[in-house]
Amino acid sequence: LFQSVEMAPRDPILGLNEQFNADTNPQKVNLGVGVYYDDNGKLPLLECVQKAEKQMMEAPKARGYLPIDGIAAYDQAVRGLVFGADSEPVKSNRVATVQALGGTGGLKIGADFLHLVSPKSKVLISDPSWENHRALFSQAGFTVEAYPYYSAAKRGVDFDGMLTALNLAPEGTIVVLHACCHNPTGYDITPAQWDQVIAAVKSRKLVPFLDMAYQGFGQGIAEDGAVIGKFVASGQDFFVSTSFSKSFSLYGERVGALSVVCKDKDEAGRVLSQLKIMIRTNYSNPPTHGATVVTTVLTTPELRALWEKELAGMRVRIKQMREALVRKLKAAGVKEDMSFISQQIGMFSYSGLTKDQMVRLRSEFGVYGTDTGRMCVAALNSKNIDHVCASVAKVLSA
Ligand code: PMP
Fold this sequence. Notes:
Layout: H1 12-22, E1 29-30, H2 47-58, H3 72-83, H4 88-91, E2 95-101, H5 102-117, E3 122-127, H6 131-139, E4 143-148, E5 150-151, E6 156-157, H7 159-168, E7 174-178, H8 191-203, E8 207-212, H9 221-233, E9 238-243, E10 255-261, H10 265-280, H11 289-299, H12 301-331, H13 340-343, E11 348-350, H14 355-365, E12 367-368, E13 374-376, H15 385-397
Parallel strand pairs: 1-12, 3-4, 3-7, 7-8, 8-9
Antiparallel strand pairs: 2-10, 5-6, 9-10, 11-13
Helix pairs in contact: 2-11, 2-12, 3-11, 5-6, 5-10, 7-8, 11-12, 12-15, 14-15
This protein binds 4'-deoxy-4'-aminopyridoxal-5'-phosphate (PMP).
């Protein structure tokens, strides 16, 4: 049976991690990851999470099966966070929300459902995009193509290219859009450009699928979520996947969601019934712990305030690292203007370094980023930044 099974290519990021772990350079720095570390280089365990877990321990509960769509209070809290508890679509009960296994799970349930209702549609993702978008939608049965996004020459978004591609897309094309903190480039489009994207998507009758994996990591919870309000105001049906992996530092708990905004309550009920079949036939129902933690934090005013403070702390530290990077690269002798790094947003920076330069950074200096030049700014700290800047300066000078 397995004789003809071929070895699948290795996940490039995991391969990089293995190489990093085997590196004996005492100054090695891993900027290849997609994870936020604190200034001590540690994965944070948020205080709001610890407090919620303490509360949960004090009133231990048996772990029965959850409903297929997850904890009702969790789904409600997600809707509140993403759309606003008093927003029209939430009050009209026209948003179908299901608990999912991280943001990936939300995307996958959405992809499977879309393949059921629109199997011939194409999927458009940004060029470049998060590695898994292409694989996930291909695996769900779609042909996946890309719309222009990053322009190395512009050091930013090729917005004209993006808009042209959307305006040429056939009706029914599914368009995956990063709601904020674009991974991997760190370049987001402006609110005015969002208006143009929304108008194009609406007039071409495309299906928008917003991937919101970093709400709160860019400008703030409300600011990063503002694009959702714009889509609601445009009166279209759309999909939103949510991830709490980063914003709660709960990577391993797999806490996320999928929300589908429908025309009315009746439609949302029918959509929800189909989403439940996708879940039931894949893993039956989701796990309890992570979603209970997130629900407790989001619905307990003191814990919610603490979370917002801790999330702001992560956001501010990333910004400080961006600014320090620009300053210290200059001080280390880099002649090029690197100020674009502080205009980027979220966990990642497209540094503009070539593949050869990234390879040299690894082999000569133990500084690990991806071959595309992506570096995780959220893994920089006050102890490793000088080594990173000195290494980048050396690689850029020769
Ligand atoms: N979308 C994007 C753009 C991401 O960067 C990530 C995580 N790296 C995800 C989705 C998946 O998030 P999760 O880990 O919650 O599945």
